[in-house]
Amino acid sequence: MKRFFGIYILLFTYTLFAQNGQQWVGHFSYTNVQDMTQSNGRVYAASESAMFSKSLITNELKTISSVDGLKPETITAIHYSPEYNRTLVGSDNGLLIVVNGDNTFLNKIDIVQEATVQSAKKKINHIAEYGGKAYISCDFGIAVFDLASLEFDDTYYLGPNGAEIPVIQSTVFGGYIYAATTTNGIRRGELSNPNLNDYTQWIEVYGGSWSGITSFGDNYFGVDNVGNVFRLSAGALVFTTIGSAAVDIRAANGYLVITSPNRISVYDENLIQVLQLNGLSGENVTFTCATVVSGQIFIGTKTKGVIESYLNNISIQENITPNGPLRSSIFSLERTSNSLWAVFGGYDYQFIPDYSQRGISELTAEGWNNIPYEDVLNAKSLTDVAVNPTNNNEVYVASYHNGLLRLEEDVPIQLYDDNNSPLENQQFIPGFDNLRVNSLYFDDTGALWMTNDMTEKPLKVFRNGNWTSYSFVDVISAPKDNKYQKMIIDRNGTKWIPSINSGLIGFNESLGNKFIVISNDDFGNLPTEYAKCVAIDNSNRLWIGTSAGLRVLSGIDRFLTEDVLSTNAIIIEEDGLAQELLYEQDINDIEVDGSNNKWVATGSAGAFLISPDGQRTLFHFTKLNSPLPSNTINDIAIDSQTGDVYFATDKGMVAYKGTATDASGDLSNVYVYPNPVRPGFEGEVKISGLIDNANIKITDIEGNLVYETTSEGGTVLWDTRAFGRYKVASGVYMIFIASEDATETKVKKVMIIR
């Protein structure tokens, strides 16, 4: 029986998205090395979402990420072809990406048509090259890819009766292709046989469960699932034992390299061991792979990236991993005036903690500063960050498992839990910590507010060393079953707290502990009780994101005088029909920029930028049309000084160089960029350093008005057109700026050269 590999090819070649080089920056982690490959003078390493390489001639370090066009799901295997100067990148969903030598990318998505392969079985485990073909070992069998034509040739199902079985690795030796499987031993087929897509052409030569296979010199070797390395060419003679299943075995530039999680063994062409490495000095590491280039060994690890050393002097070690956060999947962000904080733990849609041990990362002007899990006092599932606005050296981090962590000068110094604070521990299992702190926010007095989920008193405040707790027993039903997302505090001191079971909860202690609950009933008008995020815009409107859409409260001051609050959907016209903005979208975050636009993060549809009134979608960034590595946006942060917008996704973080900045206090620092505007420029002129509600008029040198607007925030943009109709001619243009009451004025010039 033959089964053919039906391919649907989504084919597009690109170098960069049109404006990526100037408008996007990638922030990816390279610490969890999935695989490495090598040429004679360069080594390549891949983490889950991005790659980097190092030249051994120039020591140049180069990264490749979604900003360059590399958009895998999760990278699982890579292979460099010196003959074709191409790097193949395999993913856990079966996506194969070809990186050409000129840095163009070719994406091919393979789909089995006759017998549908489940998504879970499409993972690419290994890529081997022989005779111009790439033999791609997958969880369903082997796919053959022609490196010259960039087309799939065939697919081999190797199991009994043509069953799909996981192939971990394949190799070619003595005219046969050998496949190491996890369930059906080592199987082989004659390479010259044109009918290898017929399962009857494959035979089992060795039984058992195998974790790797490779050819080296006049031999080929296999590793079983307990760590015995066999010289298969000698009739399965035991070559060595490595103590545990191998995670990688390869031939690399005249050496045989075998890697297990805690040992690396290297043999020369005479099968004499030249290195056995049992861990790294002073480092708690887990090995993932290793390779040899020009006498140097490059060691891939699970949390430390790539370590470079020498076969003849392993004591010399250098970490060559590019600077980046601890992980690519970022759960939450917090932006301050001089840094960006990121945490990686969290919970799922039902708020079940992931109990992750992932530390904290901080992006500063000098790069990423990482605080590993070993230094965070055993705090797991870190979900939120709050920085003291009066002392940026004091940082608090919420743990959705252990309580509240306090840092001073980037050093964790104290963990608040049920032993030293009123924080309450939900011990579903005796002796098992379950102290769920989330949603941190400093108010104007310097008090830190937080939620302590699944308790009767979930709202707590830490002020000047003292704690106060507020009960929700008389406010919502079953408070011990409720969980809460990131709160905000408005100018009146009202706390707006999204919950998953009770909608949005408003609270103000200065009004006699006043509560108002906005739910999905006829009064509150939320689309669901599952509220996820809130934001206050520059017009004091409250924007509410839920798991099923968006609502707006017309004014936050209504809380002071009313007892029932109702929200409204934003109705827009699309294709001549009235529709609800972001209808049924799962909204994870809403951020307001300096121009009162709203950046909206969604769970599966990318990121939206909508106008101040919500009537226009200015941008809709997705994985397909932008460098976003994923359409799952966990969080957004905005640098109010530069306008840069950071998107934290489950596959990595990218920053969009935005233009909306916060308003200045006066007009002393107004600047215009670019100036002059040179031929070929297709962007917009940015006028920044403005005060809010400033009037801007642009005229030609003779005083004819060509553009007029009012600022919302610190920046306005001009597309160099006369009221949006036609591009103005070359010349000098005057920019007249005046405050709302005309007490402050400024005049600037911009030269336009067509």
UniProtKB/TrEMBL annotation:
Residues 43-202 form the PorZ N-terminal beta-propeller domain. Keywords: Signal. Gene3D superfamilies: YVTN repeat-like/Quinoprotein amine dehydrogenase. It comes from the Bacteria. InterPro entries: PorZ_N (IPR048954), Quinoprotein_ADH-like_sf (IPR011047), Secre_tail (IPR026444), WD40/YVTN_repeat-like_dom_sf (IPR015943). This is T9SS C-terminal target domain-containing protein. It comes from Flavobacterium arcticum.
